[in-house]
Amino acid sequence: MPNLSSRIPQGTLRFIGRRLLRALVSLILFQVILFSLIQALPQDLVELEIAVGSQFEAGMEEFQAPEPEEPLRKQFASWMRGFYGGDLGESKELKEPIGDILASRLPRSLLLLLPGTVAGFLFGIWLGKRVAWQKRSWLEFAATLGGTAFYTTFPPWLAFVMFQVIGLSLGWFPVGKTIDPVKWFREDITINEVILKIFLTIGVAGLVYLLFTWLTRNQVRLRSRLQTIGGVGIIILAILPWIPSAYGPLAIDLLHHLVIPLMTLILLTFGETMLIMRATMVEAMEADYVPTARAKGLRDSQVRDRHVARVAILPVLARFILHLPIVIIGSFILERIFSWEGMGKILFDAVKVNDLPILMAVLSVLGVTILLSHILLDLLNLWLDPRQRVSEVAEVVIPGER
Q1: Taking the C-alpha atoms of 365, 371, 377 and 380 in order, what is their torsion angle to the nearest 10 degrees?
Q2: What 8-state DSSP symbol labels residue 95?
Q3: Which of 111, 227, 313, 332 is surrounded by the fewest CB atoms within 10 Å?
Q4: 3-class DSSP state for residue 258?
Q5: Residue 51: which pLDDT band, with cuts at 50, 70 and 90?
C-alpha cells in the first residue's frame, strides 16, 4: 500500500515544510518579544488596588512580586525548554499546573469562540454574496447599513447594550454568570463534560451533513431543497438523544446563559466579513469568465456560487485570518463583561497580578493557533486558486527557473 507522502506532490510537501519552519521561527521570536515586554511591566501594578494609609505597607508586603532568583535569560531558557517539552509550568499565583488550568477553562472559551466566529463568518459570506448579486435592492441597503454599524461599533459598548436591553430590561436571557448553580447542585456532571458532548454532537452532525451534501451533489434541480430538508432532519436526529439524558437540562441551562455573549460576538464578526465579501463579489462579477459561464446555460445561483464566490472568498479568508487575534482577544473581553468563566478571566487575572507563567503560556498557545491558521490559509489558497497552486509549487520544485 503506498504511503500518504507518495500521493502528495513533492512540491506541495516542501511548500508545507517551508511554511512550518517559518511559523516555528516566528513563534520563537514572538515568545522572546513577549517575555521581554512582560518583564518590562512594573511589578507594583497591584498598588492601584491597595488601600492608602496604614494598610499600604502591609498590602505592598503581601502583593510585592519576589525578586527573581536567577537571571532573566536563564528563566526564559528554562521556560522555553518546558514549553517545547510539553510542560507549561505552574501558576505563580494559583500554585497549580498551568496545563490543568487551561484544560479546565479552554472548553468554555471554545464554546463561545468557535460557534460565534464561524456563524458570523458564514452569515457574512452568505449575506455578502447575495447583496452583491442583488444590486439596488432593499436587502442591499439594509445589509450594508447594518454591517457598517456593527463593524464600526465599539465592542464593549455593544456588549453593554446587549447586557442592558436583552438581559436586564427584557429579561429574555440570564446575564452575569455561566450556569444556574441551583440546577447543577445535585448533579454529578461537570460543565466541561456537557461542553465536550455538545462539541461531539455538533461534529458528528456536521460530518453526516457533509456526507449528505456530497451524495446529493448531482441532483442539480433538487439539491438546494434536499440539503435544507436533510439539514433539518439531521438537527432533529442530533437533538433526540439529549431529551431523555441527564445532560439535556444542563446543556439547555448552559446554552441559555450563552445566548447573549454569542449573539454579541456574531454581530461583531459578520459586519466586516459581509462588507468585504460584497466588495470582492462586485469586482469578481466583472471578470470575463462570468459571461462565459452564463453562455453555457448555467443558472444564476451556479454562476454566483461556483464561479464568482469561489474567487471572491479568497480575500475574505485572508482578512479573517489576519484579524483572528483581534477576534480572539475580543471574545476574551466579552467573557469578562458577561462573567463567562473561560480563558478571558484567567488572562485578565494574570495581568492583574503579573503572573508571568500564565501570561506566557496563554499568549504562546494563542500564537501557535494564529500561526497554524496562517498555514491553513496558505493551503486553502492553493486549493481554491489553481493559479497560485501552480506558481507556488513550481517555485518550490524548480527554484530560480521561470
Answers
A1: -80
A2: -
A3: 227
A4: helix
A5: very low
